[in-house]
Write a structure and sequence with these properties.
20 strands; OB fold (Dihydrolipoamide Acetyltransferase, E2P); 25% strand; 10 helices; DUF1173; DUF1173 domain-containing protein; plasmid
Length: 438
């Protein structure tokens, strides 16, 4: 697989698989090449097998003081230049809703980690900290970048993107499960910081049959005191009213050792339903009738139940402060309409290689593709657009989209489906002969 073999300074061949199969060798060789890589010219640094404009793309050998370990990292802002199957590939932010943020909202560091500016004030204990309203610098991308902070929805999309769950290759079939997805999310959280904190320090996945996550959840709450604030992420089973006028949310796997009650105040439940109508409509269906999953990222206040006579002593009561929902296919690919789901499922069934750009916090006037095919003759990717509405406001927006695509990719240089007039999905652009992104 392209990207598996790494060339270290001096020409030594190094395999990424060693991090899993031979971690001692991994650490030993990276440590030995650390100083040499730092002082080497760009052309002599560690590199993968990817090429950009005829030149190799360098990699960094980085040392993490917090874990006393070495790792390889892509150079800042060069992730989109790598091949789509390379482990160091990162989606182009200009082809997703990330383009709506001013530059200071997502800051990529030299070690490949990112720091983000969130709309909520993170605090482990005590009352939630208010949002810092200090004005941020203006963007140098006129007309598009307006968002000055990232909401929980933007953070959920960033976690999903950094976990590689917006990309699909045929070999992923049968390997994309909710538990696998949450494991990748947990790993992605170790590379994202907000307000000086690693998101992973505050992130507790809820996954079926995953006792390690459950034990970690209780350890955090027990260690940090009677009340603290953290993120829960999981797949929603139900969101139902309780006798007190609020709502109870159940996450898939919550019964597997998590010993947790999850309450959603009525006002927050109503906000979630308004902001995430597709997710709310999906949850309104009987579980057996749902064709998709709903993911929730929830910022909660959690406390131990300590009443001596309570039958629930030792359980955790968590109340949702704010959060976000996202609807994903059985293949863990996000979508924003039933028509997008149909296209995503059809692409998976056809064995195509593609990417699903996410909206993050972008307004609807920001144009980017619904999907990008990576296995056609066009190396830069083949944009795909789904038109699914007929109302007057959408008609004007559609005209703007068509004009943008025609100007950017040329007439006939992009794929579209008018789901309002065509009941069947049109044929997809053909895959290039011999295309194997595996």
């Amino acid at each position: 697989m392209t990207g598996t073999i790494i060339i270290l300074p001096g020409g030594e061949r190094f395999q990424l698989e060693w991090r899993r199969t031979d971690p001692e060798r991994w650490e030993r060789r990276l440590k030995a090449k650390y100083d040499e890589s730092r002082s080497a010219e760009r052309s002599d640094k560690a590199r993968c097998l990817c090429q950009h404009r005829g030149a190799s793309l360098p990699l960094q050998i980085r040392y993490r003081a917090d874990s006393h370990s070495y790792h390889l990292a892509v150079w800042p802002n060069e992730g989109p230049l790598h091949e789509k199957t390379c482990p160091f590939y990162k989606p182009d932010p200009e082809k997703s809703g990330r383009a709506s943020y001013v530059n200071s909202v997502i800051r990529e560091g030299e070690d490949g980690d990112v720091a983000v500016t969130l709309s909520i004030g993170l605090r482990r204990k005590g009352p939630p900290r208010p949002v810092d309203d200090t004005p941020l610098p203006a963007s140098d991308r006129p007309g598009q970048a307006r968002q000055r902070r990232m909401t929980p929805l933007g953070l959920l999309h960033l976690l999903w993107e950094r976990a590689g769950l917006t990309e699909w290759l045929p070999q992923f079939a049968r390997h994309r499960t909710p538990t696998v997805a949450l494991g990748r999310i947990a790993s992605a959280g170790t590379r994202i910081r907000a307000q000086g904190r690693l998101i992973s320090d505050l992130l507790c996945p809820v996954a079926p049959g995953h006792e390690k996550f459950g034990r970690r959840f209780h350890a955090i709450v027990r260690t940090e005191g009677q009340e603290n604030h953290l993120f829960l992420i999981g797949f929603v089973e139900a969101l139902e009213p309780d006798p007190r006028g609020n709502f109870t949310m159940a996450l898939n796997g919550q019964r597997d050792g998590y010993r947790c009650f999850l309450t959603v105040p009525a006002a927050e439940r109503n906000r979630l339903a308004r902001s995430h109508q597709l997710a709310a409509a999906t949850l309104a269906l009987p579980e057996a009738a749902r064709q998709a999953h709903v993911v929730a990222l929830l910022y909660v206040t959690a406390r131990n139940i300590v009443a001596p006579n309570s039958r629930w002593r030792g359980w955790i009561q968590a109340e949702v402060r704010t959060g976000a929902l996202m609807t994903v296919s059985r293949s863990m690919l996000p979508f924003e309409s039933s028509h997008e789901l149909a296209v995503a499922d059809a692409l998976v069934a056809a064995g195509r290689a593609f990417e699903k750009p996410l909206r993050f916090d972008a307004e609807r006037d920001l144009v980017f593709p619904d999907f990008i095919l990576w296995d056609t003759a066009r190396n830069a990717g083949y944009p795909m657009e789904v038109f699914g509405r007929m109302d007057e406001a959408y008609t004007a927006r559609r005209a703007g989209k068509e004009n943008y695509y025609n100007m950017t990719f040329g007439r006939g240089g992009w794929w579209s489906w008018d789901a309002t007039t065509e009941s069947r999905i049109p044929a997809f652009p053909p895959a290039r002969k011999g295309a194997t992104l595996s």
